[in-house]
Amino acid sequence: MKSVITTTLALACAFAPPSASAQAVIGNVDGFEKSEAIRLVADFQNWIVENSEYGESKRPLERIVFSAHGETVGYHGRTVKLEGQIRGLYDEATATIYLVKPWTSMNPYDRSVLLHELVHHIQHDAKHWYCPQAQEWDAYKLQEKWLAAHNLSGNFHWASILLESSCAVRDHHPD
After folding, report:
1. Kind plus residue range of the DSSP H or E element containing 48
2. What is the mean pLDDT of residues 45-50?
3. Residue 68, strand partner residues
4. Does residue 138 register a pLDDT over 50?
5. Strand residue runs (E) in 21-171
């Protein structure tokens, strides 16, 4: 499967703690948010396994990067601009999660974005995907389940997510 970027498009929407490199990148925020992000990764990985058919990730999460809205991030010789309603991004080639600032562990919707991107990290090696966007449906369903457990709703537009996560012929690329 070719490397792709998957995104969390809704504004409200390694099965180990992040590696040393992830902790170093997380370190670009204040001490409280750094420790909370590290704790959340471990808690969310356990939650995903307990609440889905996904098992433990086969590789560690390498980095979490906090990026400004409108910032351009590098991705395999290309650039992606973090704009619009993008709140998070997972780059499977580098096992990196990008969270768009402002992001705070105190906000449950922000936490759910981290959860959504961790789902993509775990999905990467979990099974065959006919197209990369097919992973979105499960990621949004788990994000909604987590929000509902906290008496919140992502108010997701499920018809759009269904279309986004479909694998039309135009989405298949020859290798």
Report:
1. helix 31-50
2. 94
3. 101
4. yes
5. 63-68, 72-75, 78-81, 88-91, 96-101
